[in-house]
Structure formats: structure tokens, C-alpha cells
Design a protein that fits this description.
Rossmann fold, 6-stranded parallel β-sheet, 10 helices, globular
């Protein structure tokens, strides 16, 4: 484990006791759903039988972009279940509104756990995805490291990295290498993004 990855892990563990207060404050402001706060701690798994593919789409734009992917994957494998995690209330509402009725029973939405080691372990232990993909630029080092340790093949699709984000990641090269190295497949949205990634 790189020094940067170890520092990220330790920092997330140390801040974890304060995060429930942060989440409760966000719920009061309408940025979280109070009844679903346990999901942010990795709780509440209800894994269906059979194969489960996990897609993480951070917000509204990413969620819109995965709708055709969900449809195509479901058509290709009629027994496949799909877990979609997002980080915002608006993306959850959009997914509920826009999912085609025949597909809805096979798609499960959960709010993504915050990147606290114990919380991401609980999430992965409960859901046990067979494979997964992150969309665009959402990179959570503890979650990706935990998935890699469990042997969950992960992809980064429609991947983007702005020059500003690349400059920030360059300050922690070990953490960047470990985080991006967790993906077995990276599909960049442009040549510039590919070069920065």
C-alpha cells in the first residue's frame, strides 16, 4: 500500500465518527434522504440471487448516461440483476422516473457508501457484486481497493479527467496509481482524458 493510500485510509477512518452528523445535517437540507442514511454506511444490502452487476453513477449526468447501458445489459442477459449506486437525491429520483417499467424490477438503487474502510467493506460484503463499473470521474480509493481485494473486476467507463484533477492526483502519485490500478478496464471519453489518466 502506498503512503498516499495509507494516509487516505487512515484519514477516512479517523473522520468516520463525525460523518453521521454531517449526513444528518445534509438530510435536514434535503441533500440526503433521512430514512436512507444507513446506505451511506454500507448497510441495507438486499442482494438478489444470481449474477449482479454494479454500476456507480455519481450524479444526474452520469445516471442519464447509464440508462441505455442498463437496458442493453438487461437485454443481453435476462437473468442479470443491476445495482446502481449514486451520490445525490436528484440522481435517485431521476433513475426512479426514467427506468423503463419492464426493467425496473431488475434494477436496485442504493446510495453509495462514503469512502470509509469499514463502511465500504460492509457494502461489498452485503452486495457481493460479480463485476462493476464506475462512470466518468468518480474515484473512491478505499472502495476501489476493497473491490480489488475481493477480486471484483471493475471498469471505468466514459472516463474523464480534467487538467485540474490530473494536477491534484499528481500530488499523490502512489494513491493515483493504486486507485486507477484497481480498474481492469478504462475507457476514456477522449484522447486528452486518456493521456491524463
Amino acid at each position: 500500500m502506498s503512503l498516499g493510500a495509507a494516509a487516505w485510509r487512515l484519514g477516512a477512518t479517523l473522520i468516520a465518527p463525525l460523518l453521521p452528523l454531517h449526513l444528518a445535517r445534509r438530510a435536514r437540507r434535503g441533500k440526503e434522504i433521512a430514512d436512507r442514511l444507513p446506505e451511506r454506511r454500507g448497510e441495507g444490502a438486499a442482494r438478489p440471487p444470481g449474477r449482479l452487476f454494479w454500476l456507480h453513477a455519481a450524479s444526474v449526468g452520469e445516471t442519464l448516461s447509464v440508462l441505455p447501458v442498463l437496458d442493453a445489459m438487461a437485454a443481453r442477459d435476462p437473468s442479470l440483476h443491476l445495482l446502481v449506486t449514486t451520490g445525490t437525491v436528484t440522481s435517485a429520483e431521476l433513475l426512479a422516473r426514467r427506468l423503463p417499467v419492464p426493467l425496473a424490477p431488475r434494477v436496485i438503487h442504493r446510495f453509495a457508501p462514503l469512502d470509509v474502510p469499514a463502511w465500504v467493506e460492509r457494502f461489498l460484503e452485503g452486495w457481493r457484486p460479480d463485476a462493476g463499473a464506475f462512470v466518468e470521474s468518480e474515484l473512491w480509493p478505499n472502495l476501489l481497493a476493497a473491490a480489488a481485494r475481493r477480486g471484483v473486476p471493475m471498469a471505468l467507463v466514459n472516463a474523464r479527467m480534467s487538467p485540474r484533477s490530473a494536477a491534484r492526483w499528481r500530488r499523490a502519485p502512489g494513491l493515483a496509481r493504486a486507485t486507477l490500478g484497481s480498474f481492469r478496464l478504462v475507457l476514456a471519453r477522449s484522447e486528452g482524458d486518456a493521456a491524463r489518466l
